Amino acid sequence: MDFREHTPIERYRVQGRIVCVKRDDLFGVTPFPPLAKLRGLKVLVDRLYAEGVRLIGCWDTRVSRLGLGLAVYTQNFSGLKSVISYPTKRGVPEPEHVAQARALGADVYPVAGGRITISFSAARKYVESRGGVMLPFGLECQEAIQAVKAEAALFPKELLPNSALILSCGSGVTLTGLVAGLPQLPNRIVGISSGRSPANILSCIERNLGAIPKCVKIHKAEVPYSFPLFFPCPFPANPYYDLKAWKFMVDHMKQYRQRIIFWNIGA
Q1: Residue 93 and residue 110: Cα distance in Å, rounded?
Q2: Which of 55, 105, 123, 167 sits a CA distance of 20 to 30 A from 77?
């Protein structure tokens, strides 16, 4: 089970213009899910295991696949066990990615859907009662931010002047890493929320970096988080995350006279 050292930048013609697409969803190689947050997951799990932790819990939504990534990576370590927790819905079957994690040996701890802070707290208490450690909500931690920062620092500087960078934002961790790591900030960084409030996404930057650059703007979700979007895209884009940001970009291209960079994060 492997990871790419660096992810590619692809170029696509959209409405007669070239869009540079950073395919950070390709960080993990199959059987890992296409998910950029595996960067932070890898570093954090490596540290926890070295510290003697042998049970790691993860909160997942019904559509994201961080838990599956954890279940896959856990297989690299002797004696390491994972617990995947997610919100249940009456009459709705277990999500496919949760079933895949279970098949890989992960324990599954469903929690009745409700207020997210209460659900996450219940999952954490369960994991800690077994002597384990729960991954931070949204994987908001320095390991994840620094992992994104390191990759962002290698982005070609010549592409950044007079540019607009567009991406889907969940927790705000990737956005924070980009702000911290890009060798030069673009003219505009446009985050399209997948469901979290713009204020909470911006607060992630503020908590971890202390200040929010003026070039950053977050747009609220136009499609509910749990609803997939189907829209033409020349590369594989997650319908719950990236594809919503890609459609926003296509619909508003005339507003962006600068070079457009699209950071594909996966889920």
Answers
A1: 11
A2: 123
Please state, as a whole number, how many other Cβ atoms lie within 10 Å of the Cβ of residue 220: 12
CA 28 to chain centroid, in Å, comes to 13
pLDDT at position 74 is 97
Q: How far apart are CA 168 and CA 3, in angstroms?
A: 22
Q: Which residues of the chain have pLDDT under 50?
A: none
Tell me if domain 9-34+141-264 and domain 38-138 are identical in fold.
Answer: yes
The Cα–Cα gap between 109 and 85 comes to 5
Per DSSP, the three-state class of 101 is helix
Q: How far apart are CA 144 and CA 172, in angstroms?
A: 11
Q: What is residue 91's predicted lDDT score, i.e. its pLDDT?
A: 86
Neighbour-count burial of 152, counting CB atoms closer than 10 A to its CB (0-12 exposed, 13-18 middle, 19+ buried): buried
CA 152, 153, 159, 164 dihedral sign is positive
Domain 9-34+141-264 indexed as CATH 3.20.20.370: no
